[in-house]
Amino acid sequence: MTGDAGARAAATEAAAVVHPLVERGETLAVVESLTGGLLAATIVDIAGVSSVFRGGLVVYATDLKESLAGVPAELLAARGPVDPDVAAALAEGGRWRCGADWCLATTGVAGPEPQNGRPVGLVFVAAAGPGGTEVRELRLRGGRQQIRMDTVTEALRLLAEQVHGLAPPPVRG
């Protein structure tokens, strides 16, 4: 999806998350790396979100993933920031640090160049919630902005599936 279509898709997914959380009285936080605040901005565009959205962390620099989001230093040293276990740790750390029922996390390579041997478009999104944490690997195409927008949409889609009970049981917990 490009441009306006991508933004509309992200907004639709955000509404599919926010409205049920409002009804259930549950809260949401985010921890963002490659999306750099775009996920939070998309969420706060939804009317009524103030009763749900706790806030979030933008941890673009690797050291902040440890110091602010609580990702173990050993994990970052061994695997680097673009890794499924790092995505899970970001979501779990953000959920705890922000005191939220749910937390979404994003990490990956938006380009234009590969990073530490990881190809452009490799992204991991994670959703941590009351039932555990699920991580999804994405292989996205397009330029930087397209990859970032598609990441937002897919992260929100993952959470919507969790919130609505459509996803398989989490593999971590």
Characterise this structure.
- The chain is α/β, with parallel strands linked by helices.
- The chain has helices at residues 3-24, 38-44, 62-67, 73-79, 84-98, 144-163, and strands spanning 28-32, 53-58, 102-108, 122-129, 132-139.
- Strands 2-1-3-4-5 form a five-stranded mixed beta sheet, with helices on both faces.
- Strand 4 and strand 5 (132-139) form a beta hairpin.
- Helix 1 packs parallel to helix 6 (144-163).
- The protein starts with a helix and ends in a 10-residue tail after the last helix.
Quick gist of this model?
The chain has 173 residues and is an alpha/beta fold.
Reported by name, the CATH topology is Maf protein
Q: Count the E strands.
A: 5
Provide the low-confidence segments as ranges.
none
CATH superfamily: CinA-like
CATH class call: Alpha Beta
Residues in helices, as a percent range: 40-55%
How would a crystallographer describe the biggest sheet? 5 strands, mixed
- Radius of gyration equals 15 Å
SSE run: HEHEHHHEEEH
Class based on secondary structure composition and strand pairing? alpha/beta
N-C termini distance? 33 Å
What would you call the shape?
globular
Topology summary:
Blueprint: H1 3-24, E1 28-32, H2 38-44, E2 53-58, H3 62-67, H4 73-79, H5 84-98, E3 102-108, E4 122-129, E5 132-139, H6 144-163
Parallel strand pairs: 1-2, 1-3
Antiparallel strand pairs: 3-4, 4-5
Helix pairs in contact: 1-6
What are the main properties of this structure?
45% helix, alpha/beta, 173 residues, single chain, globular, 20% strand, Maf protein, 5 strands, 6 helices
